[in-house]
Amino acid sequence: MDVCVLGAGIVGLACAYELDRQGARVTVVDMATPGSGASAGNGAQLSYSYVQPLADGSIWGQLPKLLLSSDSPLKIRPQWDVAQWRWGLAFLQACNASASSRTTAKLLDLAALSRTGLDRMRAAHQPECDFSSTGKLVLYPNAKTFAAAQKQMELQRTLGSQQAALSAQESCDLEPALASYRQNIAGAIYTASECAVDCRKLCQALERILRARGVQFLLGNAVTTLETRQQRIVAARTDTHTIEASQFVLALGSESPRLARSVGVRLPVYPIKGYSITLDIAQVSAHTAPCVNVTDIASKVVFARIGSRLRVAGMAELVGHDRSLQPHAIESLQRSTRTLFPALNAGHAELPWTGLRPATPTGLPIVGVQAGGPQNLVVNAGHGALGLTLAFGTAQQVAQQLLQTPVP
Ligand SMILES: Cc1cc2nc3c(=O)[nH]c(=O)nc-3n(C[C@H](O)[C@H](O)[C@H](O)COP(=O)(O)OP(=O)(O)OC[C@H]3O[C@@H](n4cnc5c(N)ncnc54)[C@H](O)[C@@H]3O)c2cc1C
Questions:
Q1: I need a surface site. Which of 14, 97, 254, 398 has the fewest CB within 10 A?
Q2: Residue 276: CB within 6 Å of ligand 1?
Q3: Cα(39) to centroid of ligand 1, in Å?
Q4: 373 CB under 6 A from ligand 1?
């Protein structure tokens, strides 16, 4: 079977890997180089057990502060864009406890499947991608948020996750670099099995692996048109190329809705903009930078060690497809870094970056042929804040749907 995968972010590449592994002939098309969209500078966390959806009942209580506070990690710039309003309403509808529990269960299943897929790929190819498995600490600033987290931990325990609630002191014993932040921690949830990886390096490694296996890449080519005949796509067109295939996978991240719309499919995927900085910590002394991955709930910032660098990521802005790098966001990440790890010099941010999370209102990715759309167009998009974590899970779902193989 000939499959054309549109998009060489982590979602498209993981999918190309699974399809090739299971015997399909694969071509990957991207307007840039592999791993240069949202997959380039993300938070690097493989968050297999901590999957709490953004759409959660607790958002209602936090909304006024999140919207009105000047240093809020959430920013909304209303657009003359019906997609933004539609997405916002659907998001608010999903903000209730039962929807959040259902989503959590589905995300945990998908994350477990994804872990299996990435582990299998790593075992087969040993890609150079700064993978680590040092666990993750999620820090809560007060008794109320910590109590809610323990409730979520309990739900996740019934679904198979193994986590522990730690005191501030226990958190600092586990991660001594947090010592001077101790008084800001009401408690933490620790997940020993969580991992981190440099997503861009993983994408680049996947490109090398796939090329060596004979997968074709057409890079630097934006897909402009999907040519359809009798409810099927016959070709994807760029300005200079026509790619024919029997099946097409749409994995263009936050750009997926545009092309989908051109063939009659409306995807509820909207960009949530985020930022990161990457610090070189090769020379810093022990207990200055964290070894364990850290998520600070107060600032909604994540810290992950990737090789000799520290990735700091956060912010959530609903500002359309604006990809401008805003100094206020970078300064906010630097401030958070100084607050949690004051011995680190975050004044000279290396590699400030911004990217668009392709988010659905519920937080669940969209996988499969869409009703009313072309029968040979499989959508694989909308992974939101968990695309790195879930990519190898949805890849197996796509392969299963296309090749009719059982999901392991
Ligand atoms: C600040 C931030 C922190 C994050 N942290 C984490 C984290 O810690 N853990 C986690 O699991 N996830 C995290 N995420 C989410 C994760 O990065 C995304 O979900 C994931 O990268 C989405 O992958 P993708 O392949 O769908 O999209 P992308 O990586 O954006 O790839 C889409 C590709 O499509 C290409 N493309 C677009 N339009 C066209 C076209 N017309 N023709 C050809 N090519 C096209 C682009 O060039 C791009 O290469 C984070 C995201 C952000 C922004």
A1: 97
A2: yes
A3: 4
A4: no
Assign 348 a pLDDT band (cuts: 50, 70, 90). Answer: low
Q: Choose among 242, 267, 309, 348: nearest CA to 83.
A: 267
Region 272-288 average pLDDT: 92
Strands 309-318 and 242-244: unpaired
Report CA(5)–ligand 1 centroid distance (Å): 15
Ligand 1 center to 381 CA (angstroms): 9
C-beta 168 within 6 A of ligand 1:
no
Express each pLDDT in 212-259 by its tens digit: 999 999 999 999 999 999 999 999 999 999 999 999 999 999 999 999
CA nearest 16: which of 39, 43, 41, 34?
34
Distance of CA 328 from the midpoint of ligand 1 (Å): 22
In this structure, is residue 50 part of a structural domain? yes
We report the CATH number of the domain holding residue 385 as: 3.50.50.60
Q: Which domain holds residue 299?
A: 2-403
Residue 408 domain-assigned (yes or no): no
Residue 315 CA, closest ligand 1 atom number: 1
Q: How far is the CA of 52 from the centre of ligand 1 (A)?
A: 19
Tell whether 185 is covered by a domain.
Answer: yes
> Is residue 315 assigned to a domain?
yes
Residues 180-198, mean pLDDT to the nearest whole number: 97
Counting ligand 1 atoms within 8 A of each CB, the residue from 388, 392, 394, 398 with the most, and so the one to mutate, is 388
317-347 exposure pattern, b = at least 16 Cβ within 10 A, e = fewer: bbbbeeeeebeebbebbbebbebbbeebebe
0.90 exceeded by pTM: yes
Cα(393)–Cα(379) distance, integer angstroms: 14
Q: Exposure of 88 by Cβ count < 10 A (0-12 exposed, 13-18 middle, 19+ buried)?
A: middle
Number of domains in the chain: 1
First to last CA, the chain: 21
